[in-house]
Amino acid sequence: MVPFVVLLPFGRLFKSREYAREDKSTISVVDGIGQTSVFIDIAATVSASSPPVLADILTELRLLNTELGRLAMSASMVNELTRWTIFAVFPVVQLSWDKNGVIGALLELGTSLVIVISVFVMVSLWMRWIVRRTPKGGRVGEVHILMVMLAVLAMGVMSDAFGLGFMDAPLIMGLLVPDGPPLGMALVERLELISTEVLLPVFFLGIGWATNFASIHHPVPLLWLLLFMLAGHVVKVLVAVAPAVYSKSSIRNAAVLGLMLNFKGLGAISSHEADPCCPLLQVLDPAGYVAVVVGIVIATAISSLLVSILYDPLSSSGMVGYRTLQHLKPHEQFCFVASILNEGPVPILLNLVEVSCADEQSSVCAYVLHLVELGGRASSSLIAHRNPKDVFVNLGQMDRVHNAFINVEKKKEGVVVVHPFTAISPYATMHQDICSLAMEKKVPFIIVPFPRKDSGGSSEVDQAARSIIPQVLSQAPCSVGVLIHQTLASSRPLALERFNYCVRVLFWGGNDDREALAYTSRLARHAGVRIFVSRFMPQVHRKEDKEMTWDDMIFKEFTRANADNERVEVEEIAVSDVNQMISAIRSIEMECDLVIVGRRQCTGLSLDEALSEWTESPELGVVGDMLASSDFANYAFSVLVIQQHGS
User: Any idea what the Cα angle at residue 174 is, between residues 270 and 396, rounded to 5°?
Assistant: First the structure.
C-alpha cells in the first residue's frame, strides 16, 4: 500500500479545470487524461500485484518454484487481499454513512460481513464435501462441476448486490476451491480451453480495438502520466529493498522481488477496460486509456527483462568447497538427494540406500524429494515433512513413496536418516527444485531416475522424468547419478536380513569414471555386496597425460584398498577396437543387480566417435545409452550413470 499512498499527492500536480454537470455539480478534469479521480484508480493499479498474472509470468520465466518466486506469490496474495478488503469495505461504509450516519454504517457493514462470511463458509464446506465424495484417483462428477460453475455466476450477482465489484466474490470463491486434484484439476481441465483459447483472445482483441492512438491530441499530459506510473513502480522496488538494507540481507534479491511484484497483465488492464458498461469510461479519456495500457506493457516488459538478467536461482557463486564423491572422507556421512516422480524407481533407490551404508561409521542421509505436477493451483510449493526437531509434519501431504523410505530408517535406526520433501511445480521447472534442495543441503550427490522407454510405465510421467535430466546435469551444484530402471515386478527391495547384491563397474577413465569408482569404494564396505570392476585398456596408442596419470592412481588405490576383500574382483580387459568394447559390454551377466558407469569416458577413445551418431539419449552418454537400449530390455539390472560435478 506504500506506493498507493506515495502516488496520491502526485495526482494533484496535474493541471485540471472545473466543469459543471447538468445536476449543477462540478468535476475536475485533466485535458487528455480524464477526471482527476482517475489517478486514485491508476495508483491502485500500479500498487497492486495480481497473483494469477504473477504466476503466469513466473511460469513463463521458469521462476515459479524458486525461492523468490514463492516469496513473490505470497507477497502478491497478501497485497491483493489487503486491496480487496479496503476497496470493498470503503464504498459500503461511505454509502451507508451518507444515508444513515455512523451507527447505520457500522450496522450495515457488520450485517454484510456476517452474510458474506456465512456464504463463503458454506461454499468451503460444500467444496470439501465434493472432494470427500470423489474416490481417490477418480474424477469429479459432471453435476458437481456444473453446480460450481453456476455458483460462480451467483457469487458475481451477490457481490454486486452488496456493493462490491462483480469480480471480487468469484475470485475469493476461487481461493476456497481445494487446489490440485480432484476438484481443482477438474475445473482447470473443463474451463482452461474455452477461457484461454476463446474468451482471452476475444478480451485482448477488445483491448486492441479500444486502444486508439489517433485519439491522442495532447501528448505532454500523457507523458507525465507515464512518469506517474513509472514512479509508482520505482517506489515498489524501493519498498522491497528497504527491509533488505535494514536487515543487511541481499539487496539484489530484494530488488528482484520488487521487480517481480511490478508484473502486470490481465488484472491491471481489466481494471481500466474501455467498455461502455465500465464506470471508468466516465472518468478516463480514450487517450488516457492508451497511456495506461502502454504504461502497463512497458513496465511488465522492463521488469521481466531485468528479472531474467539479475536473478539466477541456481548460481554457484556462493558455493564453498567441493561437491563430489571423490572428496568425501571414507567414513563421512553420505548425503544425497533422490528425486522421484512415481513409485517405479523406489525399490531400486531403497537398495541403493542399503548398499551405501555398511555400518554406523558409514551412515546415510537421504533427502527424498517427491515431485508432483502442478495442476489445479496457481503457485508451486516445496513442503518439508520433517522439522529441525526431527518431528514429522505435514503428514497429509505424505504418501507411500515417503513411507517406504521412513520404514527403512526405522529398520536401520542410527545408520539411515530420511528427510522427506514434496515439490509441487510444473514439469518444466522441476529441475530447479532438485538443484536448489541439493544446494541448500550441501549434498555431494543427486540421484535422478531415468525410466527405460520400454518399461511399460505411464508415458507422460516417464517422458517428464526423462526431460528433467538434461537440466539437472547442466545446472546441478554437485555430482549427479542418473538411475536407469525398468518398472518390473521383480524390481523389489531386497530383505535387509539376507541382503545379497551384485554390482558391475565399467571403467575406462576420465573424471566421471573416477567418480563412479569413488562411489564403488563406499559400496565395497558392505558385507552383502559383491563387486566386479572391469577396466578397459585400449591397445591403441594414447598419449600419457595428467588424466591418464589420475586414472592409474585412482584405480591402483582402489585395487590396493580392496586387496583383502574377497567380495571385490578386479579385471583388466585389453580391447583393440570398438567392436571388442561393445562385445565386452554385452557380456554383462543377467544376474547382476546394478551396473555403474561414468557418463563420459576419457578422451582419446574411439568409442564416442563411433557410437555418438547412434545415441538416442545423449544425457546418458554413449555407454549409458547402450545399456538403456532395447538390446538390454530383458536384463533385470539397473544402471547408474554418474557425472562428476565440474568435469
Answer: 145
Dist. CA 264–CA 287, nearest whole Å: 20
Intra-chain end-to-end CA distance of the chain, in Å: 49
Question: In terms of residues, how long is the chain?
Answer: 647
235 near 2, Cβ under 8 Å?
A: yes
10-residue mean pLDDT profile of the chain (647 residues): values are: 79 71 68 75 83 86 86 87 71 60 66 74 88 82 88 82 69 78 81 82 83 82 87 91 89 92 78 47 74 89 92 66 77 91 90 84 90 75 83 78 90 89 88 90 93 69 87 91 74 63 90 92 90 82 72 90 90 79 74 89 62 78 85 83 87
Q: In this predicted model, what pLDDT tens digit does every residue of 208-226 receive, in sequence order?
A: 888 888 888 878 888 888 8
Characterize the bridge pairing of strands 445-451 and 334-340: parallel
Contact 416/363 with Cβ under 8 angstroms? yes
Q: What is the CA radius of gyration of the chain?
A: 31
Please tell me the distance from the alpha carbon of residue 551 to that of residue 570, in angstroms, as a whole number: 15
* β-sheet with 568-575: strand ranges across: 381-384, 416-425, 364-373, 334-340, 445-451, 479-485, 638-643, 594-598, 501-507, 529-538, 568-575
The CA–CA distances, whole Å, from 429 to 60, 340, 398, 437 equal 10, 14, 21, 13
Q: Please, which residues bridge with residue 640 across strands?
A: 483, 596
- Angle, nearest 10°, between helix axes 2-10 and 38-47? 150
Comparing CA positions, the residue from 308, 386, 232, 296 lying closest to residue 68 is 308
Say which amino acid occupies 414: G
The C-alpha atoms of residue 511 and residue 593 are separated, in whole angstroms, by 24
CA distance 504 to 485: 15
Distances (CA, A) of 325 to 332, 439, 522, 555, 603: 11, 15, 10, 15, 21
Can you list the pairs that 425-428 forms with residues at least 24 positions away whose Cβ atoms lie under 8 Å?
425/64, 425/65, 425/371, 425/372, 425/373, 425/374, 425/380, 425/381, 426/59, 426/64, 426/65, 426/373, 426/374, 426/380, 427/373, 427/464, 427/467, 427/468, 428/62
* 70 neighbors 380 (Cβ within 8 angstroms): yes
- Cα–Cα distance between 362 and 355 in angstroms, integer? 10
CA–CA gap between residue 187 and residue 277 (Å, rounded): 29
Q: Which helix (H) or strand (E) segment is 176 a member of?
A: helix 168-176
Encoded amino acid at 245, one letter: V
Cα 256 from Cα 69, distance rounded (Å): 10
Q: How far is residue 184's CA from residue 374's CA, in Å, rounded to a whole number?
A: 11
Per-residue CA distances from 504 to 397, 484, 499, 525, 529 (Å)? 37, 14, 17, 15, 11
Could you give the CA distance from residue 228 to residue 225 in angstroms, rounded to a whole number? 5
DSSP bridge pairs for 339:
369
